[in-house]
Amino acid sequence: MVxxxxxxxxxxxxxxxxxxxxxxxxxxxxxxxxxLLVAWDYKEGKRVAYxxxxxxxxxxxxxxxxxxxxxxxxxxxxxIRHIDAGSIPYPQHAYSLNxxxxxxxxxxxxxxxxxIHDFLxxxxxxxxxxxxxxxxxxxISNAELEALLRNSTVLYTKTGxxxxxxxxxxxxx
Length: 173
Known about the structure:
With 173 residues, this protein is an alpha+beta fold. 25% of the residues lie in helices and 27% in strands. It has a five-stranded antiparallel sheet. The chain has a three-stranded antiparallel sheet with strand order 6-8-7. Strands 9-10 form a two-stranded antiparallel sheet. The longest helix has 11 residues, at 110-120. 15% of the residues are buried.
């Protein structure tokens, strides 16, 4: 007989990697009764402890290169190519904690993603045009990006010619 995993009600998703104070962290342990979060600070290279409620309130999610590429509707290799060319700054990276410090993956903060989005809005897709204008019609808008980062919804309205356009919607509390 296969046992189903039990889920606790009211418990949010665990973030293994997160940004706090513009520094990449990895969760080591969480003690809810003591309101304590112990994490590894990759920039400082040491264990740090935070008040759990404050850390949850101020943390930002860390995104992998694949997640960023999917969000911005670009290929993984495109993001890597722009990083290697120096157009996009190198993100912070997670490394192994066994003493060898082998790089495991690059992780982007929400601010990094906004910078990449601003850069990609200026990059032309395809062969150069004779009039030197930029064509990147499938780039998401700033509102759509913020909705993706905040896990909120974007309201679209249909215009008279049948095209869907994102519009601003006041969040409901």
